[in-house]
Amino acid sequence: MVQTSEKQKIELLTGNESVATAVKLAKPQVIAAYPITPQTTIVETLSKMVAEGELDCDYVNVESEHSAMGAAIGASLSGVRTFTATSAHGLLYMGELVWWAGLTRIPIVMPVVNRSLNPWNIWPDHQDSMSFRDAGWIQFYAKNNQEVLDLTLCAFKIAEHHKIWMPVMVCLDGFILSHTSAQVSIPSQKDVDEFLPPFEPLAILDPKDPFAHGSLTDSQGIWEQRMSLIDGFENSRVIIPKIFAEYAEKFGKLGKNMIEITGDINSADIAIMALGTLGEEAEQALEVLNEKGIKAVVVRLRVFRPFPRKELITALKKVSKVLVIDRAVSFGNAGQMAIEVQAELYTHKIEIEFHQIIRGLGGMDVTYMEIAAEVEKIM
């Protein structure tokens, strides 16, 4: 039952406006900003909010994405809620400090508006965020503008939970979501304030009580830090579903699981797996497949890091075939999600007919009819 105390507004928002709206509701104290297509309108919208007094926040214009992440790290270590956003080549440019924030556990929230990498291309695929899947960041992949807003609000609470305390990427497909408008239900500020408590730092850099953070570290120190990060991810497997469930109960959105299942998993012959908007496109394929007598189900990961292995295995045990559609590729092997799904199936000794394809690179359109056709070939 939804426990909201105030009525939610419904507005027509792009994906980027959905991010900015969520950030305004979350009340960060510092935003570090540098523009890059197709992320630019996130920081432009937030800049306008700050300039017009809608958001009480220090808005820091920097000269590069590298500086944006550096400013975000410094602000977080000073004891305040911090936000930045980027895409593609901007993510690569800040890459050194993306790893720094992840491996030293800085609770920054950063949407990544997915965009293809070299050669020059502004259209979406997941190669940019997938390049940082091992950088110590929690990763969410949104399927629509509503989920963009919901996941961004949850990201702050998850990042700042003291048993997690690590940065979060909210990934949304460039242009398909970032620049496309859809109806979005917006919770009230009062209800968000009840859901998301004020920032409570675990440690603050203070010249009156100095300590070193991220300084030159010996092998033992590195080992201890990495084990701490692993513990944080293991904690997040338990805490993320709880926070999702709390959000769902309060706002009637999102759902409590790291995986969303569309269709009847108990009667399906084949599961279709995809991230982001490809997952929602696969949902549209179910009607076509049902008309042809093919019982299919969509198993969409809304959380890619930590990899939701328990939920995934529980689902895939119930089907005899799976098709994994990746929008990125680990060159020399296969799609990143396909690799990880195969590893989990092998680890748990689950025999299943496995199929994988790579689609949608560089913004190539992938329709529900094409997904349905791929499933028909397998069946």
Describe this structure in words.
The protein is α/β, with parallel strands linked by helices and 379 residues long. The chain folds into 2 domains: 9-251, Rossmann fold (3-Layer(aba) Sandwich), CATH 3.40.50; 260-378, 3-Layer(aba) Sandwich (Rossmann fold), CATH 3.40.50. The chain is 42% helix and 18% strand. It has 13 helices and 14 strands. The chain has helices spanning 15-26, 40-51, 65-77, 88-93, 95-103, 127-130, 145-160, 189-195, 219-251, 276-291, 309-316, 336-347, 368-378; strands spanning 9-14, 30-33, 58-61, 82-83, 109-114, 138-141, 168-173, 181-186, 259-262, 270-273, 296-301, 303-305, 321-326, 353-358. The strands form 4 sheets. Strands 9-11-10-13-14 form a 5-stranded mixed sheet, sandwiched between helices. Strand 6 (138-141), helix 7 and strand 7 (168-173) form a beta-alpha-beta unit. Helix 3 packs parallel to helix 5 (95-103). It is globular, with a radius of gyration of 20 Å.
- Compute the separation of the termini in Å: 39 Å
Helix proportion:
40-55%
Quote the CATH topology of the largest domain.
Answer: Rossmann fold
Principal-axis shape equals globular
Number of helices: 13
CATH class (first level) name of the largest domain = Alpha Beta
Secondary-structure element sequence?
EHEHEHEHHEHEHEEHHEEHEEHEHEH
Enumerate the strands of the largest sheet in spatial order, edge to edge or round the barrel: 9-11-10-13-14
Regions with little confidence, pLDDT below 50 for 5+ residues: none
CATH superfamily of the largest domain: Thiamin diphosphate (ThDP)-binding fold, Pyr/PP domains
| Number of DSSP strand runs | 14
Whole-number count of domains: 2
Largest sheet: 5 strands, mixed
Average pLDDT, all residues:
96
Percentage of residues in strands: 15-25%
Radius of gyration: 20 Å
Structural class: alpha/beta
Q: Label the CATH architecture of the largest domain.
A: 3-Layer(aba) Sandwich
